[in-house]
Amino acid sequence: MPIEKAKKHFLGKEGHARLNCADAILAAFDALDDTTKRALCKGSGMSPDGECGALCAAKAILGKDNPDAIKALENEFISLAGSNKCDEIRRLRKLSRLGCVEAAAGLLKEKK
Mind giving me the DSSP string for the chain? Predict the structure, then answer.
């Protein structure tokens, strides 16, 4: 299950490598070897425009082929986290970093 796999990677549990939020999503959905996605999406608010890395990775995996699905994923994430920006999410404290990984993985699983 990709949600549990993403959480295990983020936490470094059960033999999984400890990864940042973006890489945890990429690993859970078998896209960690995609250098384009890894170059774009970074953890700790270092994704473009300070976007949440987990959200960035989920959107990158979903691909540009379905912009409506990407927008829906982003809107649903924002409703859960309060923002799509890492710094704002942390300030609002609606979701933890692990919560962002879990939310992004769950929404991506629904949309794929």
Answer: -HHHHHHHHHHT-TTPPP--HHHHHHHHTT-TT-HHHHHH--STT-SGGGB-HHHHHHHHHH-TT-HHHHHHHHHHHHHHHS-SBHHHHHHHTSS-HHHHHHHHHHHHHHH-
- How do residues 35-58 score in pLDDT, each as one tens digit? 888 888 998 888 999 999 999 999
Q: Helices 21-28 and 2-11, interaxial angle, to 10°?
A: 140
pTM of the model: 0.94
Cα 93 from Cα 58, distance rounded (Å)? 21
> 106 is in which domain, residue-wise?
2-111
Which token pair is 42?
């970074």
**Considering its fold, how many domains does the chain have in total?**
1
Neighbour tally for 94: CB within 10 Å: 16
